[in-house]
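Fold Annotation — chain and its backbone
Next Lines — sequence and tokenised fold

***
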Amino acid sequence: MNLPSHSTHEQAVLELAKVRPLLRARDLAQQELPTVALSRLVTAGKLERVARGVYGLPGQAISEHRSLAEVALRVPQGVVCLLSALRVHDIGTQAPFEVWLAIEHRSPIPRLDQPRIRPVRMSGAAFADGIEHLTVDGVSVPVFNAAKTVADCFKYRNKIGLDVALEALRDGWAQRKFTMDAIFHFATVDRVANVMRPYLESVTT
């Protein structure tokens, strides 16, 4: 029986990397390809290590949200939130250098060197409600929707500043990123409806 050669395996990995710009060992295992091919291709300069356990083709175009995809691969139970979610939804002027990531209350805090993360503890409906998925470089990235993100900004105003929360509310409303019903729903979920009510009234009058 003829076994596939190293070069055949490596070519298959390179073809897979074209489809999945961020490649992990488990992706190879799912295709029954030897994971050792990754290290051989890195040594040959045909792949590069873009993060711990994550590989990609050298010189490929980098998405604006590449760091979110890398975090989603390494911390799949997290949800992009607050300043990073504002950036995703193009609301306000924040440009965070860390990935703000919601972590379920009892989950351990992940330790990543790069990309750096800013963990935020959430629980119950505040963690589970309002999640949508953004595809970045072939990776499904969980992120809170625009209305949930703005409500979170008020809930965590002591972390990010009330001025940031107000900017998010005004800009998001001006861009019609959410309805008033949606924002009030998530304000209730986050238990900040009373805090937000006067600001909600101000943007609608």
About this structure: The beta strands are 48-51, 54-56, 79-80, 99-104, 117-122, 131-136, 139-144. The first strand starts at residue 48 and ends at 51.
